Amino acid sequence: MSRRVVVTGMGAITPIGLSVSEFWENVKAGKTGFAPITRFDATGYKCHLAAEVKGFEGKEYMDFKAAKRMELFCQYAVAAAKEAILDAGLDMEKEDAFRAGVSIGSGIGSLQAMEREHAKLLEKGPSRVNPLFVPMMIGNMASGNVSIQFGLKGKSINVVTACATGTNSIGEAFRSIQYGDADIMVAGGAESSITPVGIAGFTALTALSTSDDPARCSIPFDKERNGFVMGEGSAVVVLEELSHAEKRGAKIYAEVVGYGCTSDAYHITSPAEDGAGAAKAMEYAVADAGIDKAEITYINAHGTGTHHNDLFETRAIKLLFGEHARNIRINSTKSLVGHLLGAAGALEFVTCVKELEENYIHKTAGYQVPDEECDLDYCKEPVRDKLQYALSNSLGFGGHNASIIMKKWK
User: Which residues make beta-bridge pairs with 187?
Assistant: First the structure.
């Protein structure tokens, strides 16, 4: 018999807030995080806007020396994990550390370290490359650093499935607790790729929006969409086996009830055109939750704002839900904070939990011009509605599809 898993803590570092509460208040206010890139001079680039994290200082969340040995994506992860662990009221001195694990993924790791040390290599030779270059660059160090900072000695994993990373990381943590590998998992995603090579690479792929209007740059499902806007940050949650959480009197935010994954086996960047892969991932998640398809009335879509993603995800929803698709409210958190790549699914998970808690579905910001082919309800305005379940989708380059379902806690 599989064990029940609940959410007992949440943390977030985002382009519209450096905590879950600040992020959520700005979500409800419809505030977006889009502005001209300040991390480097983007004058010669086709893309000039990003959703940067503002006002973040790593040393405010950890020892200064520890912060210096971490790249930005790891600092974001540690900061978000700290908030989540404090929020959960976890006292590791009272826990079996080997029963508390970490599953925090990053899609890319540190492009900053790569660029910086490569320049040193070319200009000053191999002897000048930082001895810590490799452990600062690699993507698993978000999980590694969180484990070290908080004394979590259980399984520590780093799922890398591009833009599905955050959802897969939480989903695999959910499975780990269900199966009995851990009682507590600190799970989520972290990313910081607003760098010259990051922006240039995604622009060359024609994946990024070239709009210079912050109000019309990240516009998922809108007919005028022309790509996603790069975001950054981290979101981390504490997942716990139900009786373990109840025994220590933890506040429970929601229950995780379903998780499904598939591969398109189709193309390295485009989702399958008929949406079959994403539809099957949602189908598996619904079956895992043991519910009827008609019980899903809200989906937090992957909704990147690229032509292909939004069209094929819409097709996937129609393929699985049939006529019921027209009764489902769909929104995209990326319309507010851009695409956090490996952290996107984790932040969308946090968003879903807050929406379940408050019976509030945020609007898809910037959505104005309907597309004949994307003809479902994309929440042009916020909706207050009694929610029982939230389904969140993430689709990654390589054909990765991940869907996760949360249930309101009563």
Answer: 103, 237
Please provide the size of the chain in residues: 410
CB count within 10 Å of CB 379 equals 21
Asked if residue 409 has pLDDT above 70, the reply is yes
Distance (Å, whole) CA 162 – CA 171:
15
Q: How many other CB atoms are found less than 10 A from the CB of residue 151?
A: 11
Burial 55-74 (b: 16+ CB within 10 A, else e): ebebeebbeeebbeebbbbb
Burial, 293: exposed, middle or buried (Cβ in 10 Å; 0-12, 13-18, 19+)?
middle
Q: Is the per-residue pLDDT at 35 higher than 70?
A: yes
Dist CA 186 CA 145 (whole Å): 12
**189 φ, ψ to 5°?**
-150, 160
- Note whether 389 and 298 are within 8 A (CB): yes
* Run of H or E residues at 268: none
Classify residue 352 by burial, with Cβ atoms within 10 Å: 0-12, 13-18, 19+: buried
- Cβ count near 267 (within 10 Å): 13
**CB pairs under 8 A, 24+ apart, for 92-97?**
92/150, 92/151, 92/152, 94/248, 95/183, 95/184, 96/183, 97/151, 97/152, 97/153, 97/154
Active site positions, annotated:
163, 302, 339
pLDDT in tens, 197-206: 999 999 999 9
Write the Ramachandran bin of 406: left for phi over 0, alpha for psi from -120 to 50, otherwise beta.
Answer: beta
Residues 363 and 15: their CA atoms lie apart, in Å, by: 17
pLDDT, tens only, 72-87: 999 999 999 999 999 9
The SS3 call for residue 302 is coil
pTM for the predicted model, two decimal places: 0.98
Radius of gyration of the chain (CA): 20
